[in-house]
Specification:
This protein has one helix and no strands. The protein has 44 residues and is mainly α.
Length: 44
């Protein structure tokens, strides 16, 4: 089953997002290689 997640940041979220980004990207790449994620991106 495919689904879309839409989440909104608060005003001061950038520092938190940047701190967690390397671990997030690594985990996402692993799941994509396993075929568990079809696509991942940010909507701007």
């Amino acid at each position: 089953m495919q689904y879309l997640v839409i989440a909104y940041d608060n005003e001061n979220a950038l520092d938190k997002r940047m701190a967690s980004r390397p671990a997030h990207v690594e985990a996402t790449q692993k799941l994509m290689a396993e075929g568990k994620i079809v696509s991942a991106c940010a909507l701007i």
